[in-house]
Each structure stands twice: as structure tokens, then as C-alpha cells.
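Worked problem 6 (solution included).
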Amino acid sequence: MTRLAAVIGQPVRQSLSPVLHNAVFAGRGLDWRFVSFDIVDGGVRAAIGAMVPLDIGGFAVTMPHKQVAAAAVDEVDSAATMLDSVNTIVLRSDGSTFGASTDGAGFVNWIAASGFELDGSRVVVVGAGAAARSIVDALGRGGADRITVVNRTPAAAERAAELAVQAEAGPIDSVADADLVVNATSVGMGNDAMPIDAALLRPDLTVADIVYHPLETTLLAAARRIGAPTIDGLGMLVHQAALQQELWTGERPDLQPMRAAAEAELARRDASRRVLPRR
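Solution. The predicted structure is:
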């Protein structure tokens, strides 16, 4: 009688989704189990079609299948329509499928929980990929006064800026009078690279990074050293997963067990990398 939910993507081996969601299912005593399905290109529609016969309650969708999933479900929410991207699929009681995008809303919820006042703020988003686009869309919906999208490819920045009426493409110098800067790229993931020059940081500038491995990126460490407020990337992952749980089960979960489980898993992975193989 156990009900399944799963993350689908390629690859999915490193996904933290099973850790996050199984922590909630166990904590709430739900007879659900979250697993991973590595889905090859061209297999998304078949995977969605299998939800009914296998009674799979929901999918978390990761790269590279978010756009294909948006076209394959029966209905999508407004954010997913704008982004042409779905990261969550719900199997409804009538057998139809509903697609949603929780990434951007998860980010906005996380910065609010961290104490940042979004309404009327000036924000710089570095990056124009899928994550950046979801964040720009959600910032626009959340009440930011001005959003500047910075990207090494100006055309990509302009396309991302089209997602919010208060957004525009601009230079990195826009950080000078911003209230919040967001690294929405993968720069800094597993290395000490920085997406922006540390000289642009100020003590009154809130610095957010969507990278969560390492938990404190070089960017966040530089911001912390000068006393600037920082917001790590793991919170966005936890908050968007909480929104997925609400879509699947109808209840918003406690975020603390999810965060604790994710931190423990990241620590375990770090420890396993430090163990030298026997000769």
C-alpha cells in the first residue's frame, strides 16, 4: 500500500530530493516512499504515463526534463506557463496530471524567512539560466521594485528580464545601489570561484547564493567577512521541496527536519570524499 513519489532526471544520483522528502514522510508517519528514476531523453512522457498504473503520487523533475515535462502534463500553473518549465508533477484523483514550478517561490519564501524584505527592494540576479529565470519571475510576483539581470550573454539576460515587468538586463555595476544580489549560476559549486568581484560587496548588501555545495561558498564567505547578511542555497532547496510536499499531500511540512536531513547528507558525502582508498 506504500505510495511512491520520485525525482526524475538525468543524472539523478546526486539529488538531495530523496533525503528531503523521505525525512518528511518518516516524520509525519506517512506511508510514502521517495525514490529516484534516471529517465533518458525521450522517456519523460512514458514516465508521466506510468503514474496512473503505478499510483505514483508525484514527481520532482530535474534537468534536463523540465521543459519537456511542462508540455507533457495535462495542466500547468501560472509560473510554469511563464517559464515553460515544470519541476513538480501531481497525480490528481481523476488521473490527470498537474505541473507546477516551485523553484522561484521557494527562493522568495527562503529570503523572507531569512529576514529580507522583498517588497520595494532593488535586486540584482546574476545568471539567466533556468534557475535564474524562475527567481526573476518569483521576485517580480513578490513585489521587488527593480530587478536587474546580469549575464555574460546580453541576449539571454534580456530574455530572462522579460519574465517580470520591473526587470531589465544590465551591468554588474548595478550591484552598487542594490539591496540584494543573487548568484543564480553554478559558479562556486565545489570550487572557490566567485561570480562577482568581492570589491562590489557592501555591509548593507544582502548576498544570496543558490549554490549549496559548499554550504558557505566563497562568495558568501567574502560577504560574511565584511559583515554583509548572507543567505545560503540550501534554504531555497528546502523551501521549494516543502511546496512540492504541499502539492502532493495537501499539507505544508515542518522545514527543520528537511534542513537537518539535507545538512547531514551533505556532511556524509563530504566525509566520504575525504576517505582515501586503500592501496
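Discussion: The chain has eleven helices and twelve strands.
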